[in-house]
UniProtKB/TrEMBL annotation:
<comment type="similarity">
    <text>Belongs to the cytidine and deoxycytidylate deaminase family.</text>
</comment>
<keyword id="KW-0862">Zinc</keyword>
<keyword id="KW-0378">Hydrolase</keyword>
<dbReference type="Pfam" id="PF00383">
    <property type="entry name" value="dCMP_cyt_deam_1"/>
</dbReference>
<dbReference type="InterPro" id="IPR050202">
    <property type="entry name" value="Cyt/Deoxycyt_deaminase"/>
</dbReference>
<dbReference type="InterPro" id="IPR002125">
    <property type="entry name" value="CMP_dCMP_dom"/>
</dbReference>
<keyword id="KW-0479">Metal-binding</keyword>
<comment type="function">
    <text>This enzyme scavenges exogenous and endogenous cytidine and 2'-deoxycytidine for UMP synthesis.</text>
</comment>
<dbReference type="InterPro" id="IPR006262">
    <property type="entry name" value="Cyt_deam_tetra"/>
</dbReference>
<dbReference type="InterPro" id="IPR016193">
    <property type="entry name" value="Cytidine_deaminase-like"/>
</dbReference>
<feature type="domain" description="CMP/dCMP-type deaminase">
    <location>
        <begin position="4"/>
        <end position="126"/>
    </location>
</feature>
<protein>
    <recommendedName>
        <fullName>Cytidine deaminase</fullName>
        <ecNumber>3.5.4.5</ecNumber>
    </recommendedName>
</protein>
<feature type="region of interest" description="Disordered">
    <location>
        <begin position="125"/>
        <end position="144"/>
    </location>
</feature>
Length: 144
């Protein structure tokens, strides 16, 4: 995936800015990504008066991924309202890990990095399978 058109992908993220709804923070974000099968997806942040339920641009992008058939993300970028390249927040880094994995290429202000570099020692679905399942609280039973 070394042939990513980062300039074009960033332009697509800038176009997504027009769909951002950021009346509270005044900080619109547009995102764009390429899937393993070549689809280009976009997302924009959608705020809410109850700040905690605001959706980041990455959330709407991953929703678009799932609504268009799923798959894996292979390249990602996002920009702010001034069309400047920005880093995904911590919550969104976790979301990107889940849907792109350690090899997802992320365009950052310091260059293109793998998701493994952006989120070292990430927690993912494979970690859930490693947990032994204890019995009900107080039972003294281990169901592993």
């Amino acid at each position: 995936m070394n042939d990513v058109d980062w300039v074009g992908l960033r332009a697509t993220a800038r176009e997504a800015l027009r769909f951002a709804y950021a009346p509270y923070s005044g900080f619109p974000v547009g995102a764009a990504a390429i899937t393993a099968d070549g689809r280009v997806l976009t997302g924009a942040n959608v705020e809410n008066a109850a700040y905690g339920v605001t959706l980041c641009a990455e959330c709407s992008l991953v929703s678009a991924l799932m609504m268009s058939g799923g798959g894996r993300l292979v390249a990602f970028t996002c920009v702010n309202g001034d069309a400047e390249l920005i880093m995904p927040c911590g919550r969104c880094r976790q979301l990107l890990w889940e849907h792109g994995g350690p090899g997802l290429l992320v365009e950052t202000p310091q260059g293109v990095l793998t998701m493994e570099q952006v989120l070292p020692q990430a927690f993912g679905p494979e970690d859930l399978a490693r947990v032994s399942r204890p019995g009900p609280p107080g039972s003294g039973e281990d169901k592993s």
